[in-house]
């Protein structure tokens, strides 16, 4: 009989719920012309549906490589439930603010909006919190036939490095009353296609992106290295090199943003 693991299930179900909201939001975008920061108000929810769903799905997939004892633990289930609930609430707030025709981030126009933004900061912390839990457990877990050396190191490093880098950059960015722009107009119009990053000045969303997606990149690197190299030492070396490159890119793009230079002009 297949054992039920609550954490993986709640993360995956929450990810699917967020993705299921995309079609309705795309329809809303076509019929609602209102703007925030010179772009359609429904663009931000769409981005957060995808990024949050990817984060939750990553946690669910990597959790499957932990021991059954760890996966079935009450503490692990609570961590998963809290983070999934926080993710749904966070997205609901973003959608509600969009429906009101106002921004959800860096919005201090009223006391209510400022309170909502502060509340969202706590929610964001709860959403990424499981990354450090799963990451540390992966690093401490023994190598098995399923949890191969490169995947173990890539998953552990990706989640832990991604957690700390994201926490630091997001914390700094959220404290900026002027928003994520540095020496650039407060507009998302004319931004880099798909991402929306400013092309006229610095944008703190760039290093935030690279920091957060270490959580997906390094596990994939480790998985590929295990299968291509068939050598534990070589696979782990590749992961360490990829981690160093990822951290370097994050640091370089953070420096670039802080001095007011666009990622791509």
UniProtKB/TrEMBL annotation:
The chain crosses the membrane at residues 48-66, 73-95, 115-139, 151-173, 206-226, 238-259. The keyword Transmembrane helix applies. It comes from the Bacteria. Keywords: Membrane, Transmembrane, Transmembrane helix. The keyword Transport does not apply. This is DUF2306 domain-containing protein. It comes from Hyphococcus aureus.
């Amino acid at each position: 009989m297949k054992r039920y693991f609550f954490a993986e299930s709640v993360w995956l179900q929450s990810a699917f719920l967020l993705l299921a909201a995309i079609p309705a939001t795309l329809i809303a975008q076509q019929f609602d012309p209102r703007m925030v920061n010179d772009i359609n108000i429904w663009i931000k929810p769409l981005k957060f549906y995808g990024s949050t769903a990817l984060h939750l799905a990553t946690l669910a997939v990597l959790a499957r490589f932990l021991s059954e004892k760890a996966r079935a633990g009450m503490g692990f289930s609570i961590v998963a439930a809290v983070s999934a609930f926080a993710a749904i609430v966070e997205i609901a707030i973003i959608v509600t603010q969009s429906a009101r025709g106002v921004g959800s981030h860096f919005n201090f126009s009223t006391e209510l909006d400022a309170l909502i933004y502060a509340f969202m900061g706590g929610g964001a912390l709860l959403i990424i919190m499981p990354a450090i839990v799963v990451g540390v457990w992966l690093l401490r877990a023994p190598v098995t036939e399923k949890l191969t050396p490169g995947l173990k190191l890539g998953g552990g490093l990706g989640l832990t490095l991604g957690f700390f880098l994201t926490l630091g950059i997001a914390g700094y960015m959220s404290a900026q009353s002027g928003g994520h722009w540095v020496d650039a107009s407060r507009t998302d119009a004319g931004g880099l296609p798909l991402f929306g990053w400013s092309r006229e000045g610095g944008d703190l969303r760039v290093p935030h992106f690279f920091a957060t997606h270490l959580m997906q990149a390094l596990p994939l690197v480790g998985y590929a290295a295990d299968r291509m190299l068939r050598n534990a030492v070589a696979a782990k070396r590749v992961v360490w090199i990829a981690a160093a490159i990822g951290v370097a890119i994050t640091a370089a793009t953070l420096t670039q943003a802080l001095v007011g230079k666009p990622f791509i002009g």
